[in-house]
Amino acid sequence: MHLRRLIKKSEYYDSYLYNPTHYDFEKRDAHIYKNPSKREINEIRNDDCNNSVRGIISETGDIFAWISEVLHYEMKNAKNISNGIHFVFDSRDSIDIFIEDMQMNSVYEIFNKAKFNLANMGIDESVKMNVHGQYY
Fold this sequence. Notes:
Helix content is 25%, strand content 31%.
């Protein structure tokens, strides 16, 4: 009997047309991935002027990620992404998470639900988390 390994695949969620700077009149597309893989995280980084990824971990454990040039509130409002833990991931060894008006037990619960999705994008127990109270 052969056992198959089930691999949860990421999905392309949507895109958002944004203006990279206030002086640039040419709009760019920001791709949004739901539960991105390491490869897709690298694609996002390559598209970003800061070589960084911004996103939201929803209360269900799903992860939505996009280039850091687009702020959380802007993407959340434009694309109807549910609120949760906001993050910025710009290095292989640390992630900044932003929580506001959340109890720590809720934060732990969300991270527990997102454990597989985080590992899929290259974030595991070895990655340092910097916790901040407010987000933008």
